[in-house]
Structures are given as C-alpha cells and as structure tokens.
## 1
Amino acid sequence: MTDEELETDRELDTDGELRGPETTGTGAAQPPATFDPPGILYELRQIERRYQRGSTPVLALKSLDLDIRAGEFLSIEGPSGSGKSTLLQLLGGLDVATAGTIRLDGQELGSCRDKSLTAIRSQQIGFVFQQFNLIPTLTALENVAIAMVPHHVRRADRVARATELLEGVGLGQRLDHLPSRLSGGEQQRVAIARALANRPRVIIADEPTGNLDSESANDVLGLLEELQTGDQPVTIIVATHDPEVAGRARRRVRLRDGAVVEDVAA
Ligand SMILES: Nc1ncnc2c1ncn2[C@@H]1O[C@H](COP(=O)(O)OP(=O)(O)OP(=O)(O)O)[C@@H](O)[C@H]1O
Ligand SMILES: [Mg+2]
C-alpha cells in the first residue's frame, strides 16, 4: 500500500487530534460535569443486544450491568455463545446495544454519531484479536504505522513510533517482515504494537492467546501486564477461554447466557 492510499483514511478523524492518556477527557469524549463517581471508565446499564436469526430473535446480552474502572485488568469468561465477543464489540464501539446505555467517560456511546464513534475508537481504544488481523501485504512496521494515519502523524514520526513500539515488543529485528514470515506469537506482538500506536486508554482483546502456544501466550500476557505499570495504566479487557489468561487478570467477570453470573476480584 502506498503512502497516498494510506492518506485516504484521514477523513476518518476530523473530530480530534492525537491524544494520549494524559489528555483524554477533552474534546469528543469530554464527560459531562455531573459525571460521578470518578475513576469509572465504563458504565453499562441494562444492556441488551438482540440479533435476528431468520425469524428468531437471539438475545446475546440481556439486562447486563457492569462498571469498569480506569486501569483495571479484567477478564471476561464464559462458555461459547455466552456473549463475550458481543460485549467486547459494544465496549469497543464497534456495535451498538439494542437497549440500555453504555457510557465511556460519561459519554453515551449509543447516542454518538458514527463519526464520533469512529473518533473514540481510534483515539481511545486498541483492539487485539485472536486472528491477529494484520494486513498481509504490509510489513510489521507498516502494519503499526498505518494505525497512526488517521491522526495526521507525519510519516517520519509514524515510522519512528512504530519502530519504537516494535522494539518494545521484542521485534526490532523484524520490522521489514511480512506477517507470513512471522510466527503466530510474533504476529500477535505486532498486533499489540499496533493497538498501542495511538496511546489508547483501553485495550480490548478477544481471545488474544487463542492461536498461540503457551510460551508465546505467556509473552503476550507479559506485554499486557507491562501496560499496567506506571502512573497511567491502560485498562485491559480480555475475553478468554484460557484459564491461564484469566488467572492473570485482577478481576474476573463470568457470563452465562448473556448475563453476568460472577464478578470477582482476583
Ligand atoms: N451477527 C450475529 N447474528 C446472529 N446471532 C449472533 C451474531 N453474533 C453473535 N450471535 C449470537 O449471539 C450469542 C453470543 O455470541 P458471542 O459471539 O458474543 O459469544 P462468545 O461468548 O464470544 O462465544 P465464543 O466463546 O464461541 O467466542 C450466540 O448465541 C451467537 O450465536
Ligand atoms: Mg467470542
């Protein structure tokens, strides 16, 4: 992909500038003055997500209430079909609930226009998926750098930051490799570097270790844990079947049939 093609993504974000955790809370995602209590990042109330399968409605989430504080490391567990991915999609602003409210920093996502939702997603949230979702024709460096294009980061700065992030995940020697020349664990580390490119407040990861051997999974978990150190820890929300992953979370939420059935601090 050429730089010109990358530039076409620019119109995605006209609502805000590149913002890191230190400046969030301004611009599009500014909380109303009345928002309380402090420290709550997500507030979900009576969430329902109804899908239509032919003529049959499917309630993937029902009457779900959940508060997530800034800086938490939260796992979402539960059997297949319990609603984990559906919940992550709502938290990430990739989908909207059919009933109920989701507030991120006091701002109700359901009432956002598509454009502000896109801005919130790209400024505040980093996504990591089981299948890595790297662009196969781009190198590791390009896969990370492309995430900064909507934020008008200059090319030289994109390359510098992508290089730094890839070095941070131990891939400084793999910058020019295409995904097909990387192992699964390496691809997921590129995906984590990409998720961090715009200094998100939240990392949303859906089965991030689902395709990895245990050693690579351990590396990936170590990287996520590193994000929790420092003054402004990144909030991490991970859906997983893997007890090893859930065991590293500091709070474990369990879903069954689209509702929270357990919520415990580890
Ligand atoms: N686009 C869709 N259309 C119809 N039904 C859907 C859709 N997406 C999810 N569902 C249904 O919603 C329910 C919850 O699905 P979801 O993918 O959130 O589960 P999950 O907990 O992530 O499962 P898994 O562990 O297998 O990934 C399931 O019954 C699923 O079949
Ligand atoms: Mg899922």
## 2
Amino acid sequence: MGYSIYHWIVIGLIVLVVAGPFIVRARLYTLESYRRDNPDCVKPGRVACRHCGGTSLWMKRKAFFVGTGWAHTCRTCGQELYYSG
Ligand SMILES: [Zn+2]
C-alpha cells in the first residue's frame, strides 16, 4: 500500500549515485594507485601531496558504503590523497 517496487528502484538509484564514487575510490585509490599516478610524490618512507608538495599527512576516519576506512589527507591543503582500509 503506497510503496510500489518503483519507490525502491528510485531509492536504490539514489544510493548508488551518492555512494558509488566513495565505493570506487575506497576500493581502487590506494597508495599503489597514488604511486602509479604520482611516482615523484612517493619515495621510500615519504609521501608528498600532489597538490601542494606537503609531506605531512594525517589519516581521517571516513565512512564508506561498504564500511569505514582511512583517508590519507594532506595537512597543508586538506586534499584527500589516497585511501586504505
Ligand atoms: Zn597538499
């Protein structure tokens, strides 16, 4: 009564659109991906921000659709660089 299957399809699509990019980034954009895209930024024992060159990162707890993970974030400019579980 009131709720047809189409409501759930629409809700499912909204969830996919909102959460999809986070799922993809959480699964794919790891330190290895960052190193592949920015080989000059990743040296043994040191990861530099590709935006501002800062080497001070902090790990921000982040909720993903599939769970929670860490966003490795530049302290200087605040950009999220890569993710780990
Ligand atoms: Zn930065």
